[in-house]
Amino acid sequence: MAQRNQNGTPVGGGTRKHSGKSEADRIAEENEVLDLKLLGATDRRIAAQLGVTHTTVQNRLKAALERIQAPKVEELRTLMTEQLDTMMVRLGTGVANGDTKSIMAALQVLDRKAKLYGLDAPAQHQITIESEADKEIKDLMNMIAGDSTKAREDLVSEA
């Protein structure tokens, strides 16, 4: 049976190929990916080192992060923030000089940092569509309530 988090969601995002490995082996692999990430290795470098695909590294990292406690996640977030800040410092001169490649790279770093802290949540919009019938009902309700002489005038002028 798949391990589930507190919300009942399968750890690691759902169905995955188990290839006969025990849960302990999978957890060890996930922890190995997390440890390498905490040492500053990129996903591609971890994939090459472990002989797995980039996607496998991402899946194992996701599963490990879902399983571990918040302090370790915060440690990883702090490390990644430091790395992104270092990149921004290195790009600073190019950005200041108007170098297009530096500006584009800086925007990508800023985008990654926003995602890291969950700042890219989708904006919520409320759309209200009012039909002509809705408008007429609203006007009638205002007229009945005596709140609007304009509603009366509009009804008379439409007739």
Quick synopsis:
With 159 residues, the chain is an all-alpha fold. The chain has 7 helices and no strands.
Can you describe what's shown?
- The structure is a single chain.
- It contains seven helices and no strands.
- Helix 1 packs across helix 3 and helix 6 packs across helix 7.
- The chain folds into three domains: 1-68, no CATH class; 80-120; 129-159, no CATH class.
- Mean pLDDT is 79; it is low at 1-5 and 9-16.
- It has helices spanning 23-38, 43-50, 54-67, 70-96, 100-116, 132-145, 149-158.
- 67% of the residues lie in helices and 0% in strands.
- The longest helix is centred in the middle third of the chain and has 27 residues, at 70-96.
- By secondary structure, it is mainly alpha-helical.
- The chain is elongated, with a radius of gyration of 28 Å.
Biggest sheet record: none
Q: How widely separated are the two ends?
A: 71 Å
Radius of gyration: 28 Å
Our estimate of the beta-strand percent is: under 5%
Q: Give the tally of β-strands.
A: 0
Shape assignment? elongated
Any idea how many domains? 3
- Number of helical regions: 7
Uncertain regions spanning at least 5 consecutive residues:
1-5, 9-16
Give the % helix. 55-70%
Return the string of H and E elements. HHHHHHH
Round the mean pLDDT to the nearest integer and report it: 79
What structural category do the secondary elements indicate? mainly alpha
